[in-house]
Amino acid sequence: MDPEIRGRGTPDNPANRFERMAIEPDPEAEAQDLEWMGADPIPPSRAPKTRFLRDSSRTVLSRNSSPDVGFGASVNPYRGCEHGCVYCYARPTHEYLGFSAGLDFETRILVKEDAPELLRRELCSPRWRPQVVAMSGVTDCYQPVERRLRLTRRCLEVLAEARNPVIIITKNRGITRDKDVLAELASQGCVRVCISLTTLDPELTAAMEPRTSRPHARLEAIRELTAAGVPVAVLTSPLIPGLTDHEVPSLLAAAAEAGATAAGYTVVRLPHGVKDLFSQWLERRFPLQKAKVLGGIEDLRGGRLNDPAFGSRMRGQGPHAAQIRDLFLLSCKKLGLNTGWPELNTSAFRRPAQDPGQMSWW
To answer: Which of 110, 201, 246, 332 could pair with 79 in a Cys bridge, judged by C-beta atoms 3.0 to 4.6 Å apart?
Structure first.
């Protein structure tokens, strides 16, 4: 396998933990086969193309029972994420689909083409009661293909019609395209945008989150949305000890200057195969820092690289976790980012029309 693939978070494609069989490419044997046949050699691909596959799910709202997140329902128009963040905790979800948590997660994207229609059907149901919906609870709803497919925008238009509150979490400046719909939701107190800002170093971003917006573009998105009247919070998530945690004050200061009015954070989570993918990435990219980074994560996770327990999985535990928390809270206090997260409004909800050309009142 190539030690590095430009524009991808990892070149590795480990076996699916649920499958007994795995495909292991053997370029040397393939080259010998071609030579034996007298065929021209095929150069190895260093930039595998993304394939988009139809997701025929019959529902679009996922239910959440975790006490660690502030929403009970979420919409994920895409499964898999071309952003390619090497540390992404969502990578193992691709294994439920028969893929790898590695390169497959970045290059095999399932698309819910009917997401807006399915969402409308859910909100039209008399069983639906207005509540906060997150976009997205797993992968980024503004990953690159959203520019063409516009599924996230169409879902937001349904939520705006219904005046149903929504939280959006993204690393992508592309969200500014939809500031008109977001402003409409904001006028009813029905939206909060959370921009994830992990580092101010564009080179680290390119290595760690290869197809995301660069830091200056994310800050510009905060400015543009704020100017449109859309409330924006910054998430310094995930913080990685020994790699990005020292940036907390500067990240929060830059976000506050851009117009963010609240802030939150999590520390890196490395479930299942993500532990190995992240360790291998450190070995390739930051070999001299690898031991320090992994040791710092273990300090947060009770001597392990991952702790799935509710209550500690988002923030970690122990003295190092307390230092990160105190630095974050002190920085927020200095910058006025500690005023809390306002409750989103559910009282303005109106049931949308089954026919988008009509309006139905609840």
So the answer is: 110
